[in-house]
What does this fold into?
Amino acid sequence: MSTTLGPVRIREVGPRDGFQNESELVPTDEKVRLIDQLMRTGLRRIEVTSFVRPDVVPQLADAAEVLRRITVPPGVRVSVLIPNSHGLDRALELRDRIDEVSVFLSASETHNRRNVNRSVADSLVGLSDVLERVRDAGMRCEAVIATTFGCPYEGRVPDARVIAIARELIEAGAHEIAFGDTTGMANPLQVRRFFALAREQLPDVELTAHFHNTRGQGLANVLAALDVGCTSFESSFGELGGCPVPPGATGNIATEDLVSMLHEMGIDTGVDLLALLGTAVALRDVVGRPLGSHTLVAGPVAWRS
Ligand code: ZN
It folds into this structure.
């Protein structure tokens, strides 16, 4: 594989973002089996679960058991999503199984209130405490800012507002900021402009893009972000995940499609695409329905001379 632009870093979020949005409970045994398979595809970062309240998200009630049971090869970094300090308490009981913690909030006031029932300012105060404890525990921390590129309730979110929130999170100790488009509202020109600004304004922190393919623009947005130097992306095997509003909306960009596109462009990811496709096939068998990933349907690009 020749490398012209890469390497690109990919965090696989399917076991968290994906399973969280599955209506049928995925058995713990199947989760462990699929995550173990993902761990052997060359993916270096995997978000394996979330310590959300089990009564609110029963699908992830097995977070601790999954973390305990997965087999993590050397060089693979495990991350978990933490909604608040109580979630962090539970995660810290398994400190030796976790490399990175992700926290989240929305840039839009209305979306944040609907999602976590708090103002953005209150979320920032709460997350500052969480970030301090994460740092004290010696873990790396990613902060995800949802609705960076638009909010279903408020429309366009000003770039300056997103950057200001990112600054506060960095000052509170975040090592990485992910900009999320969980409702699939971003367009490539907007993404290019935003990441150019973010790189200029936030020079000393890893910037990550978290795109959804809700309107089929996920990979176009990846290319736009790449063009202005963003080389860290989050995606989900099988295109799992996403906001289930409206019903039937697709999820995160598919990791297979992302890897396929990058490899065809000569950009290294470290991922074995065939192994990843094998994992997506196993996932399709577990969820028992067709998945949105294009490469899963069409197969990898095969050049014949
Ligand atoms: Zn997502």
Notes: The longest helix spans residues 120-136. Residues 17, 182, 210, 212, 241, 252 surround zinc ion (CB under 6 Å).
